[in-house]
């Protein structure tokens, strides 16, 4: 058994502050973009700063953006989150579009989960040998080779009509009958 878990923080996977239950709170608190004004590997980050940084700041008013020019150093993004995690990302020789995607990844994650030893609320001495359940556990294997949409797998006409659909049809029928009565008068 390995002892490498001794050097990792332990924690549970959960939505921070029940994020998304009432409203979404962006977990990215601050992002520091460090770059050189002349270094060749910083070209993509300089393009991002010139073209997209103002729009990023307007779309994310809760995120503080710092620019830190440094001489003869490679480009780096340091993201700090509400839970105290800091994620450092090297952006050397990345294009403008790649940096845009990586900044979006930093904005949408909740910190560095990879450096956390995940714990469970349950414990058992005899874990299942069948493996965890997934949504594909009891699916028909014919779905793997089917060309979708396929009437065989997606036929909903076999299902009974829902109550909402019945009410909608009754309402339309009632409107038609009222229209016929008004035209007859």
Automatic annotation (TrEMBL):
**Domain of life of the organism in this record?**
Eukaryota
Q: What keywords sit in the KW lines?
A: Mitochondrion, Ribonucleoprotein, Ribosomal protein
Q: Name one GO cellular component term.
A: ribonucleoprotein complex
Task: Tell me which residues make up the Ribosomal protein/NADH dehydrogenase domain.
Answer: 37-110
In the record, which residues are listed under signal peptide? none
**Subcellular location per the Swiss-Prot or TrEMBL entry:** Mitochondrion
Q: Which InterPro entries match?
A: Ribosomal_mL43, Ribosomal_mL43/mS25/NADH_DH, Thioredoxin-like_sf
Q: Identify its protein family.
A: Belongs to the mitochondrion-specific ribosomal protein mL43 family.
Q: What protein am I looking at?
A: Large ribosomal subunit protein mL43
């Amino acid at each position: 058994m390995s002892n490498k878990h001794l050097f990792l923080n332990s924690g549970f996977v959960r939505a921070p502050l029940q994020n998304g239950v009432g409203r979404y709170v962006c977990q990215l608190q601050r992002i520091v973009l460090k770059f050189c004004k002349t270094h060749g590997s910083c070209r993509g980050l300089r393009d991002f700063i010139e073209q997209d940084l103002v729009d990023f700041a307007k779309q994310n008013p809760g995120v503080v953006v710092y620019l830190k020019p440094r001489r003869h150093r490679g480009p780096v993004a340091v993201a700090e989150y509400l839970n105290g995690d800091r994620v450092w990302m090297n952006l050397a020789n990345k294009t403008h579009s790649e940096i845009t995607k990586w900044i979006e990844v930093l904005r949408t994650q909740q910190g560095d989960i990879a450096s956390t030893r995940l714990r469970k609320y349950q414990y058992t001495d005899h874990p299942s040998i069948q493996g965890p359940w997934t949504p594909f556990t009891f699916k028909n294997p014919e779905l793997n080779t089917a060309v979708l949409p396929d009437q065989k797998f997606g036929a909903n006409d076999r299902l009974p009509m829902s109550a909402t659909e019945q009410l909608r049809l009754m309402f339309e029928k009632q409107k038609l009958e009222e229209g016929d009565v008004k035209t007859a008068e």
